[in-house]
Amino acid sequence: MSHPVVRDIRFFLAHTPGLVRHGSKPTREIHSNHSVWQDIQGSLRSFDEAAAYAPHQVLLGNMKPDGLNTAAAPWYENMLAEYSTSGPHGELVNEDQFHGLLKAADEFDLVLLEEGYAARVAAELRSHPRVTDEEIERIQGVPYSRIEERLTSREGAIPLLTRDGETIGLVQTDYVDDASLAPDILLENLAVKATATMALRSVLAESGTDPAGLQYVIGSGEEAIGDRYNRGGGNLAKTVAEAAACVNSTGSDVKAFCCAPVHAMVVGGSLVQSGVFPEVAVVGGCSLAKLGMKFRGHLAKEIPVMEDVLAGFAVLMGPDDGTSPVLRLDSVGRHTVGAGSVQQAIVEALVADPLDRLGLKFGDVAKYATEMHNPEITDTAGSGNVPRTNYRLIAALAAQRGEIEKGSESRDRFVEQHGMPGFSPTQGHVASAMPFMAHALDDLRAGDYQYSMFLAKGSLFLGRMTHMSDGESFILESNSGAG
Amino acid sequence: MVVLLGSPTPESAEVYARTVTEGDPSWVGPLAGIALGLPVFHVLEEEVKSQFDAAVYQEQVEIMESVLDTDDIIAAMKNVREAVGV
Predict the structure, then answer these.
(1) What is the pLDDT of residue A344?
(2) Residue of B nearest to A33 (CA)
(3) A432-461 pLDDT per residue, tens
């Protein structure tokens, strides 16, 4: 038996302003008032603006999260002079490349691209090291007349537009009567497949891991893949394993709303430790429904519509290698059915209980990773500063237990030392704790500190089956090398 | 009838308070243009807090007082009630 370690993680980001119209909120509002799209379109960022946006550079690993404390705010007005579309933790592609990747991920002719556009995009992606020759071959286009005819002659197709408003393709269904295979859902699922696949390919290649050595992939996203008889049946995991050439791998999905990645990490770690599947990946694709989710608030404040980025991630786990940070399975914090949904009870279950079990104090955990939503996106739309609220809650509990002094000064000091500003796009499960993992792995490997805790919460009540919340947590510890 | 809010920010508290008094300020929900004029309070306000069993309040709510922008939330609620006259 061996302790599981977390070897590496990569993020894949796509700036997709043209797809904002297909986010859930914009779709509904455009449907009732077509002029809404003009308002949104006028506030969408360019690719350079999205790339030079400080929170994205943190996600790509070109900047530390705490760097946001001193970066000039608002970040959307103070673009970084130096930035890159790739970094040690991931890459950011533009919308043309992403449309090409949607076509590359499509095995059923669901996506049609205009032929000139397809040729240009294929040429652009040809030099990308993570796109296969077979996929480049798949990025074939059709005459514009065929796209126009399909969009206007019958139901079951939605247009793909660029930020500039040019129609460059469509997504179609071959089962018009099946709501589970509607074109907007197929678009959502293809985007999930594309983002998760690119993230898994990156983490495998950049960590020098042979895809054939991977044995199990766990999907942890919020998508619902399936037809009318098995809506949400899923297995994105195995789909992505195939696309990333993990020929000896099988897989399955863990479903738990935003909390699923943390559940999946615990399940993955358990598979490693038991020896059932020693080499495991946890993947999460994007959440297209959340594009433009808070556009009303952003337009009202005359700031950019910042929910224009899709994000996916992939983590590699394996047996103890003597160097990679250890996932302490004895630290797992669980929100049980009987724990209730009061915030205080949830944080006690997720933070205080595991610390007690390991004989640690609140201050022993150098950095807590919680829901890392970028506050510039949420606070400006009336949804508050999510990570700050969570950090204050942890601090309040530490004060209640007498581990720090009571009062706002002590609280704010704790938050600054053990928390960080949010820097994740509001991509649901992707934003839950995972965005900090790449930085934590770097810090723990460098010996900057010994412990980092990852906690996530899930809003089960959104599905109308229960009033419950959910949550789970675990601690990553630097590897002592003792085995 | 009294409407009791638990929303976590001054902005959201104001939106909900306005919605049940003078009508949905965003004009997108079913209460757009409908002024119900209902008295509305936030659970963190003293008028509500004082009516709780202290032990229940401590277990269910108190910790959030030190987490949320409580003063701003209370100010937002008072502003709406004064402006609308409920």
Answers:
(1) 86
(2) B28
(3) 999 999 999 999 999 999 999 999 999 999
Q: Is residue A338 located within the same domain as residue A397?
A: yes
The parent domain of residue A301 ranges over: 4-319
Q: Which of A377, A309, A292, A383 is nearest to A37 (CA)?
A: A292
Q: A180 and A81, same structural domain?
A: yes
> How confident is the model over B20-76, as pLDDT tens digits?
999 988 777 889 899 999 999 999 999 999 999 999 998 889 889 889 999 999 999
On whether both A268 and A347 belong to a single domain, the answer is no
Check whether residue A369 and residue A431 sit in a common domain.
Answer: yes
Beta strands across the sheet bearing A141-142:
A141-142, A111-114, A167-172, A157-161
Q: What's the rounded mean pLDDT across residues A235-241?
A: 97
Same domain, A161 and A259: yes
One domain, residues A304 and A420: no
Is the predicted pLDDT of residue A1 greater than 60, yes or no? Answer: no
For chain B, say whether A392 makes contact (Cβ under 8 Å).
yes
A304 and A343, same domain (yes or no): no
Our measurement of the distance from residue A27's CA atom to the centroid of its chain's CA atoms, rounded to an integer in Å, reads 21
Q: Which residues of A touch B56 (CB under 8 A)?
A: none
Q: What is the mean pLDDT of residues A227-234?
A: 96
Query: For an interface test with A, which of B66, B70, B73 has the most A Cβ atoms less than 10 Å from its Cβ?
Result: B66
Q: Which of residues A281, A299, A319 is at a domain's end?
A: A319
Which residue of A296, A344, A408 is in closest CB contact with B63? A344
Name every chain B residue with its beta carbon within 8 A of the beta carbon of A392: 66-67
CB contact (8 A) between residue A383 and residue B9:
yes
Q: Report which of A59, A87, A55 is spatially closest to residue A71, judged by C-alpha positions.
A: A55
Give the closest residue to A75 by CA, choosing from A468, A377, A399: A377
pTM confidence score: 0.94
Q: What is the pLDDT of residue B59?
A: 85
Specify whether the CB–CB gap between A414 and B80 falls below 8 A: no
Domain count, chain A: 2
In a domain, A482, yes or no: no
Interface contact A382, partner B, CB < 8 A:
yes
Report the DSSP pairing between strands A216-219 and A250-253: parallel
Do A333 and A307 share a structural domain?
Answer: no
